[in-house]
Design a protein that fits this description.
Layout lengths: L11 H20 L16 E7 L10 E6 L9 E6 L4 E7 L6 E13 L2 E13 L3 E19 L2 E6 L1
Antiparallel strand pairs: 1-2, 1-3, 2-8, 3-4, 4-5, 5-6, 6-7, 7-8
């Protein structure tokens, strides 16, 4: 029996087309923004609202430790910093003041669990309104913060890593 040698013969023009198509395909796939891999860690923060007892606004240049208490709708609080984990990946950190202090800051971004008790928060923008109104700060790429999350009864502690 003879050897079965099948060969594909391309003209020079067809070979150039194949090479160009390969180059375009490589460029297209390598320029795509990397997608964040989904993790299997339980999201304990999804759809929760927290008052920041100490540490101020959760911001890239903020404190190293934050103490959070779950917001109770019936509680009347006039002056506070808060963080709202809007859904499974978006958060907003903001402050609220009674009359007389009319400078408000809102921080928007995304969060992801990187370990069971560690989150990465990416700040996309910071907005200031009221007496301290300023153009929004947009971060591209986002400012990244990583926190260990410690549960203390009904409270949380975020410790910057």
């Amino acid at each position: 029996m003879g050897k079965n040698t099948s060969q594909i013969k391309l003209s020079e023009e067809e070979a150039v087309k194949v090479i160009l198509l390969s180059i375009i395909l490589v460029l297209f796939t390598s320029c795509k923004n990397p997608e964040r891999k989904k993790t299997n860690f339980p999201n304990k923060l999804k759809n929760t609202y927290w008052i920041i007892d100490s540490g101020g606004l959760i911001a890239p240049d903020g404190n190293t430790t934050y103490e959070l208490s779950k917001r109770v709708d019936s509680a009347l609080i006039l002056n506070f910093h808060a963080v709202n984990f809007v859904d499974e990946e978006k958060f907003e950190s903001f402050d609220s003041w009674e009359c007389g202090n009319d400078c408000f800051t809102e921080i928007y971004g995304r969060y992801y669990f990187v370990q069971a008790n560690q989150i990465e928060m990416e700040v996309d923008s910071i907005h200031k309104s009221g007496t301290c109104e300023a153009p929004a700060k947009i971060f591209k790429p986002a400012k990244v913060m990583t926190f260990d999350m410690v549960e203390k009864g009904m409270q949380l502690q975020f410790i910057r890593v």
